[in-house]
Specification:
Elements lengths: L1 E4 L6 E4 L3 E3 L2 E3 L5 H6 L8 E7 L4 E8 L7 E7 L1 E8 L10 E7 L5 E4 L3 E7 L4 E7 L8 E3 L17 E2 L1 H4 L16
Parallel strand pairs: 6-14
Antiparallel strand pairs: 1-2, 2-10, 3-4, 5-12, 6-11, 6-13, 7-10, 7-12, 8-9, 8-11
Length: about 180
């Protein structure tokens, strides 16, 4: 695999190193040893599939707060999407900065999303499917969501969204206070 760190420390674009012949190619999409060599979290506990009927479907921005924060490894398995992550680690020099990466079924590229990042994507064609492996189970009380068009991030989306769930449309604008887990009573 080929690991390329992005401008957001700890976030990587990962490409399959293809061994090709007349049949096609073979390559690894995950190797615990190689991930550990790059200092990446290998504690995958769940794998998810997101199927999206229409071009312009937007999901996110989503994350979970500590101690339930999660790492994600995202890959587009059908169609294409524009995957966006926002660094929400308060102590990071790239706090509130974002990157976007085009993931397609044809480019086999993956995005490694570290803990402390919000994640979102918009589909670039109909019938798009994404798979992602995560290092934490879903924890409802730890989930946070932010608006896709929040001026705090100024994300430049390649197309306008056509479909957004009511839940994602209703997310609050970002505040640093939203990154604090409420005390249990």
């Amino acid at each position: 695999m080929i690991f390329t760190e992005t401008k957001l420390k700890g976030a990587f674009i990962i490409e399959i190193k293809k061994i090709e012949d007349e049949r096609g190619f073979f390559g690894r999409s995950y190797c615990q040893t190689e991930f550990k060599e790059h200092g990446l979290n290998t504690n995958v506990v769940q794998a998810n599939v997101s199927y999206n009927k229409k071009k312009g479907t937007l999901r996110g921005l989503h994350m979970q707060l500590p101690p339930y924060d999660e790492t994600k490894l995202v890959r587009c398995t059908k169609g294409s999407l524009y995957d966006v992550i926002v660094d929400l680690r308060k102590d990071s020099p790239t706090f509130k900065q974002w990157i976007g990466v085009e993931l397609t079924a044809d480019n086999y590229r993956m995005l490694y999303v570290p803990e402390g990042f919000a994640h979102s994507f918009i589909t670039l064609e109909d019938e798009t499917e994404a798979t992602y492996q995560v290092t934490q189970f879903y924890t409802a009380g730890a989930e946070r969501g932010f608006r896709w068009n929040d001026p705090a991030f100024n994300i430049q989306w390649p197309i306008e969204p056509v479909i957004i769930s009511e839940k994602d449309r209703s997310h609050s604008l970002f505040t640093e206070a939203s990154l604090i887990m409420p005390e249990k009573s």
